[in-house]
Target: DUF1996 domain-containing protein
Amino acid sequence: MKHLSIAATAAILAQNVAGQAMLRFACSQLVVDRVDPIVNPGMLYTPIFTRLWSTCTSCSFVEDLSNYWTAVMFFKNKEGQYQRVPQVGNGGPQGKLINNGGLDVYYIPSGKTTAFAKGFRMIAGDAGNTQDSAVDKSNICHRCWTSTNEDQFIGGAPCSGSDTVAIPKSPTCKMIRQTIIFPACWDGKNLDSVDHKTHVAYGTGGFGGASGGGNCPTSHPVKLPQVMFELMWNVTEFSDQGLWPSDGSDPFIYSMDLGGSAAHGDYVFGWKDDTLQRAMDQGCNLNHDCAGAGLHYQAPELYNACTIPQQAPEEVDGWLQGLPMGGSIVKV
Ligand SMILES: *[C@@H]1O[C@H](CO)[C@@H](O)[C@H](O)[C@H]1NC(C)=O
Model:
């Protein structure tokens, strides 16, 4: 399946790992394109990796040339037309992150962690899943953000409380916060696996959510930094129920034409040299310069300027007569 994803090279909110240093930074949108490079490497369009490995980074750390992808959210109106849901940056008690689209990335250490090896990649979630019950909501979830301001924090720790696997469907939600938490335990051998998942595992011992990943099982004994994506979808302009499909179908869906059960993220490690390992070891925090690990923060004007052209040129904005699924979707 190929669908629109956001690519970015390159919340835990204070209350869940109080006092815990972690990286938390913005990665703006590099491109919105019909690719999902780990799930469908190289499909139809020429080599995705070489094209996506831009020489700049759209993230606020200069040293982060990792690739991050996730699906794009669309609103569907009662006429069956679609519009891509705008994204906003992220606020909250840990400070405001400025994004041009894209996502916020966290690397959360818990105890001694081993940074990813060169060539490492993995997927969290399943782009084809239609069963909410098949998803552990402490890892992949959505939050109904009743405030129109992302700075006004809503709820508790990521993927806790009333967060849901499904994309919330209520006119009270002015934004929808999406969280994708990756497995933090590695088999210590394989940089990838056939399903892009079995070389990693979620921890055990009741440490769900953005806690750093819990205890690693003996099959996957190596503790990795816990990677988390956070996205703020601004649904304010679509929150009037009078605009929604009258047949009861979901007004908010991902670009695979599926709901929250199919939320997923792709990760390809790409930090320069051993900067991520040093950042974890030295307790580098949030999106600040961290001299001990050689991390340099760059301003939004710089990382927002890093974009690449679509490989599959097509309309992705404004009202569309269908999802950009590879057909000839015309603008309304
Ligand atoms: C969210 O969308 C609404 C409606 O378009 C807009 O007024 C508001 O400024 C947006 N919020 C942010 C934080 O950009």
